[in-house]
Amino acid sequence: MTDHALSGFAFSPSAASAVRTVHARGGAPVALRGLAKSFGAKPVLSGIDLEIPAGQFLAVVGRSGCGKSTLLRTIVGLESPSAGVVAAARGDEARIMFQEPRLLPWARIVDNVRVGVPGGKTKADAREAARAALAEVGLADRAGEWPSVLSGGQKQRVALARALVSRPRLLALDEPLGALDALTRIEMQALLERVWREQGFTAVLVTHDVSEALALADRVILIENGAIALDIAVDLPRPRRRGSPEIARLEGAILDQLFGNGASEDALKESVA
Amino acid sequence: MRLELKSVLPFLIPAGLIVLWQVLASAGEISQSVLPAPTQVVAAGWRLALSGELWANIWISTWRALTGLAIGGGIGFALGLANGASKLSERLTDPSLQMIRTIPHLAMIPLVILWFGIDETAKIFLVALGVFFPIYLNTLHGVRTVDDQLVEMGRAYGMSPATLFAKVVLPGALPSIFVGLRYALGIMWLTLIVAETISASSGLGYMAMNAREFMLVDVVVLAILIYAALGKLADSGAKLLERATLSWHPAYVSR
Ligand SMILES: Nc1ncnc2c1ncn2[C@@H]1O[C@H](COP(=O)(O)OP(=O)(O)OP(=O)(O)O)[C@@H](O)[C@H]1O
Ligand SMILES: [Mg+2]
């Protein structure tokens, strides 16, 4: 099963043909209108208008503390907006993957994945679904073990299986690969891209890594000063080649916005505040 | 060979002490009225076991201990969970409980005797009071320190409050609850010994005090050793339970 998990590796030409739609429920659109969020007197987001079409892979980038997680958590309903409207999938149709795996240390791997199975299934059915989801992320043989024996990357794959087992139509990812080493990151990116292509859910990926955003997303937005400062489409064929001239050009545009004119203004603001 | 030596090692000193005790007692170095020889203690145990007196007393003491533990521990556990989960419940009860905690429970003995006389209720009440606080405090602490991130995950993944409690909060609080339980077991025996020694007409403490009146030092020593054995037994039982329920914990996996 492990090689299967890697068959969607970004550099492999066969990945394009791996599209399956067996159990997929398809993606669900997301719409934010006039969204604002503040914590106490501290505004974090303001006047965000964002339409994410069904099945789109959106990446959200921005400086640390700019409100990326807040935006994501508002989309899946973990935070309620201070103003504006959020229209998005809910319940087991919307899943979130956190920066940490957040596995229950006292539950076996398969039971951790079972947490994501929607209610109303028999225990045997739920277990079966959990095992299938584990197979999808290449960890079928670890079902009976405790989370504490897994590596960081494997734990995140279990968390991905838990998020996918309900066949969500919206998957929110809050820097889930942030803590992984470079090689494991690339493997996980390939895995993510593969399951997204197979299942067709709408994906919202928060990342601080611009090249990761450009490798995976259909569209990248940049959050700055609580608003969307940049919204660019990444119309490049998949699987994408790292370091291609188009990607380099887009990366340059995003980094310019981040560090060019914006940087000095922000530094000034912070020193005043 | 190494392994065998290792497992024998902890018993070397106790065994040596018993041999030394026997030798000194047999040689007349220790007066019988101070400390009878181990063989005499064993003989006393045999005598009382045959007459059935020993078993009756062990049984009644154990029954008192466990009943007190069930009542005091049960209430402490329930209040610990409630106050860990609900701010309202905590505001209402915790300050009063903390106030009562400042009273050493053994200081209540004269009052308890006035209230209940010297029958079973008095001893069970004291044990219950003694075990209440370690279990209450550790359960509360356990529930409060459950990883918030896991609780948020549980909510985000649609767990009902009951499921969240059973799958996230309780397992997360369990290591702390066991600390409370093992501490409570120690207090349980201690309280019972004191209560039975002061006022009782049955039980191990009574057996010891009764033997003292007739200068039966061997029975007194026997009672003390049985208390120690019961305490050890309870602790081992808790340890076993701990190991069985915390098998996921890295600290228990390797052992
Ligand atoms: N629950 C909260 N209460 C108060 N302030 C909060 C809360 N959550 C977030 N904030 C504040 O909101 C701002 C945005 O936080 P957020 O976590 O969304 O940033 P981020 O872009 O995800 O940063 P990072 O890249 O470091 O994860 C920060 O200044 C943070 O201190
Ligand atoms: Mg964040």
From TrEMBL, chain A:
Does Cell membrane count among this protein's keywords?
yes
Q: Which InterPro entries match?
A: AAA+_ATPase, ABC_transporter-like_ATP-bd, ABC_transporter-like_CS, ABC_transporter_ATP-bind, P-loop_NTPase
Question: Mind listing the GO molecular function terms for this protein?
Answer: ATP binding; ATP hydrolysis activity
A Pfam family the protein falls into: ABC_tran
Keyword Membrane set for record? yes
**Per its UniProt entry, which superkingdom is the organism in?**
Bacteria
Residues folding into a coiled coil are none
Q: Keywords for this entry?
A: ATP-binding, Cell membrane, Membrane, Nucleotide-binding, Translocase, Transport
Q: Where is the ABC transporter domain?
A: 30-250
Q: What does the similarity note say? A: Belongs to the ABC transporter superfamily.
Protein name, per record:
ATP-binding cassette domain-containing protein
| Organism of derivation | Hansschlegelia quercus
UniProtKB/TrEMBL annotation, chain B:
Question: What InterPro entries does this protein's entry cite?
Answer: MetI-like, MetI-like_sf
Q: Does the keyword Cytoplasm apply?
A: no
Residues forming the ABC transmembrane type-1 domain are: 54-235
Mostly located where?
membrane
List the PROSITE patterns hit by this protein, alphabetically.
ABC_TM1
Protein localization: Cell membrane
TM stretches of this protein: 58-81, 102-118, 124-143, 164-181, 187-207, 214-234
Report the GO terms under cellular component.
Answer: plasma membrane
Q: Which residues form a coiled coil?
A: none
Biological process terms from the Gene Ontology for this record are:
alkanesulfonate transmembrane transport
Q: Which Gene3D superfamilies match?
A: MetI-like
**What is the topology of this protein in the membrane according to its UniProt annotation?**
Multi-pass membrane protein
Cite the entry's keywords alphabetically: Cell membrane, Membrane, Transmembrane, Transmembrane helix, Transport
Task: Write down the superkingdom of origin.
Answer: Bacteria
Taken from the record, one Pfam family name reads BPD_transp_1
Functional note: Probably part of an ABC transporter complex. Probably responsible for the translocation of the substrate across the membrane.
Q: Which family does it belong to?
A: Belongs to the binding-protein-dependent transport system permease family.
Give the protein's recorded name: Aliphatic sulfonate ABC transporter permease SsuC
The organism is Hansschlegelia quercus
Q: What is the name of the gene encoding this protein?
A: ssuC
